[in-house]
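Researcher: Please predict.
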Amino acid sequence: MFNLLMKPKPWIAVSLLLAASIFGQGFGRAKNSQPKSCASKKESCKPCPAPCPQPNPPTQLCQPAPNPCCPSWPVPVLNAGYNYPANTRTRCPWNITFDASFIYWQPLEDNLELAISTPTTATFGVIDSSVIRMHTDYKPGFKVGLGGKFDYDNWDLHGEYTWFHNTNNTSAAAAAGYTFNMIQGSPENIQLGTAFSNVDQSWHLGMDIGELVLGRSYYVGTQLTFHPTFGARGAWIRQKVDEAFTQVSSGTVVEEQTFLRSSTSWAVGPQVGLDANWMLSKSFRFYGCGEADILYTQYNRLVDSHTNEILGTTTNTRQNDYGAVRTHLDLELGFGWGMYFDCNKWYMDLSAGYGFQVFFDQNMFRRFTEASASGPTTVSYLSTLPNGNLYVQGLTVTFKLDF
């Protein structure tokens, strides 16, 4: 054994093996340490903790096509007996949806006319009068919403809050040869012969509306999707009308009467709706939304107040706790654009539409009509309630983000 160790040939062989092994290891380390263009991509494309779902067709928008960070999904096999889900699906999702809207609406309401303009003299025995109506402008507001998607059959839940508060003013002065006769107010002040030269009216409207709905989006054709919803809606609506009638003679106010009418109500009830999207391309669509709800409405305060500024007298009429069932309809049509970005991790949608809403029988201001006249000064009046619908129309621009 000792002789074998002392011979040079075995040592030479062992030295060659060791040198080859060391050289090979050093070369391997040097080769692997060289940077690769795809190494950073692979590190940035770490797999998700859970399998990422496939976006529903036709939402595969990965560009360019051969991208290691965004591989193509297989084309799904559609079952004719099942409505394939059409909600957006992001890669590695939180299943949360956020949306914010800017609204520019015009409020309208029945029976808010100010007065009747009547000529002081008749022409050929005919008196031609005209109604002075309330003018309203478009006013800004906003909506905010938050929702989420469920794994169970692709259902989604969405809540939304709408804020719309505004004031509209209208003033009129009687033309030469004309006077104003009031058509609102307390019965003792709506009498033939009561004439004014100026009228001013302000309408204050405050609407706070909330809703929570459950729905499911699905395809009913290759380019058409439906999203039926059902849930609940709540509304808190406040209205106040200030009116001032004045009679000016020779620059002096000889008569002035003011009216204050207000109503405060809250409402809650079931709601159903249907949203439809017609795909014009991979990103653009035409949409229509319709909703209907029946609301139990409680009026906590109905006030009619009249003041004669010259005489210094005030008449107040109040009614509390008036309950009724009201109907509300909402329809909107518009266009939208949406797309995935950041390798389908986010979905952004922009839409703009024009909508119409009606709250039936929401005008609870009392209206008096003449019932009979048994003598020159004895007049009987009837009070009617409600007095018309509340309408809202205008533009809604919405930004929506899914992640």
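Model: The radius of gyration is 37 Å.
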